[in-house]
Structure formats: structure tokens, C-alpha cells
Amino acid sequence: MNSRATRLTSIFLIFAAMEAPALAYLDGATGSIILQAAIGLFASWMVYYRMFKEKAKAFIGRIGGKAPANTDVQ
Q1: Which residues constitute the domain of residue 54?
Q2: Is residue 3 part of a domain?
């Protein structure tokens, strides 16, 4: 499996190195869309991280025999 991943990575790098310039026009809205996507990605990552952290705390608390603390945000 490792050799397959190495082969696919090598093929991707070869094709990426031979790429010609696109000569495309980027208008002002493109930067706005990219910024909006980055902010959305960051926000969703933060929500996922917080949910994962709370689930991990509850799981570790169950293993240790402690009742999970109430962490509801009011």
C-alpha cells in the first residue's frame, strides 16, 4: 500500500511540475470568497474541536469512575 501511495504522489508531483500558467483573471470577489471559506473552515474546526474535547473529557471521566461535570454554556 505504501508503494501505491508513493507512486500516486510521484505522479501528482510530476504533473504539478509540468503545469502551464492559467493566465486567468481573478476579480475582487474571488478574494472575498476565499476569505469567507477560510473563516468558515476555521469556525467549523473550532466547533469540531470543542465537541471532541467534551466527548473525550466525558469518556475519560467514565473510565476514571467520575461523573462528568456539567459544562453547559448558558
Answers
A1: 25-67
A2: no
Let me know if residue 14 belongs to a domain.
Answer: no
Tell me which amino acid residue 38 is: A
Is the Cβ–Cβ distance between 41 and 51 less than 8 Å?
Answer: no
Contact 61, 68 (CB under 8 A): yes
pLDDT tens-digit readout, 20-73:
877 877 787 888 999 999 999 999 999 999 999 999 998 888 887 765 566 665
User: What pLDDT, in 10s, does the model give residues 8-35?
Assistant: 999 999 988 887 877 877 787 888 999 9
Three-state DSSP at 25 gives coil
Domain annotation covers residue 9: no
